[in-house]
Design goal:
The protein is built from six helices and eight strands. With 279 residues, the protein is α+β, with helices and mostly antiparallel strands. A hairpin with a 5-residue loop joins strand 7 and strand 8 (269-277).
C-alpha cells in the first residue's frame, strides 16, 4: 500500500493537470469567440454609420499632416487655404482625386451640418441615395442643383440635402424657423475646391414646389439674374417670405447660397435658408 501511495498521488496530480489544461483551452476558446463576436458587432455598427464621417476625418487629417511639415505656420496656411483659381485647396485635394463629383464642403458651425457637397450636372439626383464612396445610403450626400455652376459661381448656388429623422444631413436647418437659432448660427461656411467662403443668413422660410402653371415666385428657379432688376426682385421675394427680418441686405453682384430640405407641412413642402456671401 505504501508503494502504491506515491503512484496514486502522481495519478491524481496528472489528472488534475489535464483537467486544468482542458479548462484553460475552453476558457481561451470562449474569450476568442467573444472577441470575434465583439468585432462583428463593431463592423455592423460601422456599416450603419454615414459615409460622411470618414470623409470628414480624412479632411481633418489633411490639416494635421500639413501642420507637421517643416514650414512656418503662415506658409502651411497659405498652401491649404489660399484661393488659387488654378489649384485645388490642399485640404480637399485627396477628396477631389477620390471622387471627381466632389465640388466643395458645407458647414454650419456648432450644428450637425458638416458634409461634402457633390455636383453632377448630367445626373441631377445622383447622390439622392448614394454615399460619397458611391454606395447605396439613404442619407445621400448634399448636392448642388444641376443648373448651377461653381467656379465661376452662379448668382445663387442651390444645395439640397435630406431631412433625416436621425438629425443627419440638412435636418437641422429647419431650426432656422426660430429667430433665436438664427441669432446663434448666423453664418454658413461653404468652401469651393478653390477658396474658403462664409455666408450670412439673409432669410429663412417655408415654401413648396409649385406646379408649372402656377404664376408665383419659385425660389428654386432663381439661379442667375438677367439684370439688376431681376436680382433685386428675387431678394425682395426672399425677404418677404422670411419668417423674421434678419436685417441682412444683398445687392446686385452679391453671391447667394440657398439650402433646401423637405418638410411636410404641405405636399411637396420645403424649408429654405438663403445666405449672402461675406466680402
Amino acid at each position: 500500500m505504501l508503494l502504491d501511495a506515491p503512484g496514486m498521488r502522481l495519478g491524481m496530480i496528472t489528472r488534475g493537470m489535464v483537467l486544468s489544461f482542458i479548462l484553460g483551452i475552453l476558457f481561451a476558446a470562449v474569450v476568442v469567440r467573444f472577441a470575434y463576436h465583439a468585432a462583428d458587432q463593431r463592423k455592423a455598427f460601422l456599416a450603419r454609420v454615414t459615409e460622411a464621417e470618414p470623409v470628414k476625418q480624412r479632411t481633418e487629417a489633411n490639416r494635421t499632416e500639413a501642420s507637421t511639415l517643416h514650414k512656418p505656420v503662415s506658409e502651411v496656411e497659405r498652401s491649404l487655404d489660399q484661393p488659387d483659381p488654378n489649384h485645388v485647396l490642399g485640404i480637399y485635394e485627396g477628396l477631389a482625386e477620390e471622387n471627381p463629383d466632389f465640388i466643395g464642403w458645407i458647414k454650419i458651425p456648432d450644428t450637425e451640418v458638416d458634409y461634402p457637397v457633390m455636383h453632377t450636372p448630367s445626373e441631377p439626383e445622383k447622390y439622392l441615395q448614394l454615399s460619397f464612396t458611391q454606395e447605396h445610403n439613404q442619407n445621400g450626400v448634399p448636392f448642388v442643383d444641376h443648373r448651377c455652376s461653381v467656379h465661376p459661381d452662379s448668382d445663387n448656388l442651390i444645395i439640397y440635402g435630406h431631412n433625416m429623422k436621425s438629425g443627419k444631413m440638412f435636418s437641422s436647418i429647419v431650426n432656422y424657423k426660430m429667430e433665436s437659432y438664427y441669432r446663434e448660427h448666423p453664418l454658413i461656411e461653404f468652401d469651393s475646391l478653390y477658396e474658403k467662403r462664409k455666408y450670412r443668413v439673409l432669410a429663412a422660410f417655408y415654401d413648396r414646389v409649385y406646379y408649372e402653371d402656377e404664376d408665383v415666385f419659385k425660389f428654386y428657379n432663381f439661379i442667375n439674374a438677367r439684370n439688376e432688376k431681376e436680382y433685386e426682385d428675387a431678394v425682395r421675394a426672399f425677404k418677404e417670405k422670411s419668417i423674421y427680418d434678419t436685417g441682412v441686405e444683398a445687392r446686385y453682384g452679391d453671391h447667394l447660397i440657398t439650402l433646401v430640405t423637405c418638410t411636410y407641412q404641405v405636399d411637396n413642402g420645403r424649408f429654405v435658408v438663403i445666405a449672402k456671401q461675406e466680402e
